[in-house]
Design brief:
With 151 residues, the protein is an alpha+beta fold. The chain has one domain: Yope Regulator, Chain: A. Helices cover 26% and strands 30% of the residues. The chain has three helices and six strands. A six-stranded antiparallel sheet has the order 1-2-3-6-5-4, sandwiched between helices. The longest helix is centred in the N-terminal third of the chain and has 15 residues.
């Protein structure tokens, strides 16, 4: 099974077992993995679910993701990822992009934002860091407010 199929299977199960009947679920959306590629030896994708949109990093060959919270440096800046574990995929790291998903009218608009978010990760940050603001805060704030949530 492909990485995308394993992730989708895990989160479809979560949708049925843990998210059924929860108010934050957007019924216009479905579980979908967008843009699987390899970044620094790790499979990277955007996961769309009816309740959230996350960047997902899968483990390397040893199957372990390391720390509970890890910052990964992309050209756009540093992003905090949290470790998770599901039977279908084992350990993984995820970085929340959107939650809840009420602002998305349909799957097509969510997919367009997921594709734009993935592309934006690889655009170098150009704004200087201000005093008292970490690079991670600047990058995340700039990334999420860079027009991705409009539409």
């Amino acid at each position: 099974m492909s990485d995308a199929a394993l992730i989708e299977a895990a989160f479809r199960r979560i949708e049925v077992e843990r998210m059924s009947g929860i108010a934050i679920v957007n019924p216009a959306l479905q579980v979908e993995v967008v843009g699987v590629s390899v970044w620094q030896g790790l499979p990277l994708a955007v996961l769309i679910t009816p309740w959230c949109m996350n960047l997902i990093l899968l483990p390397d060959r040893d199957g372990r993701m390391g720390q509970e919270r890890t910052f990964y440096r992309f050209p756009a800046g540093d992003f905090a990822f949290l470790r998770g574990r599901e039977p279908e995929i084992g350990e993984y790291h995820s970085c929340a992009l959107f939650s809840p998903m009420a602002q998305f009218a349909d799957q097509q608009s969510a997919r367009a934002v997921a594709e734009a978010a993935l592309a934006a990760l690889f655009v170098p940050a150009t704004r200087p860091v201000k005093a008292g603001q970490s690079e991670a805060q600047l990058s995340r704030r700039g990334f999420l407010s860079g027009g991705l949530s409009r539409g």
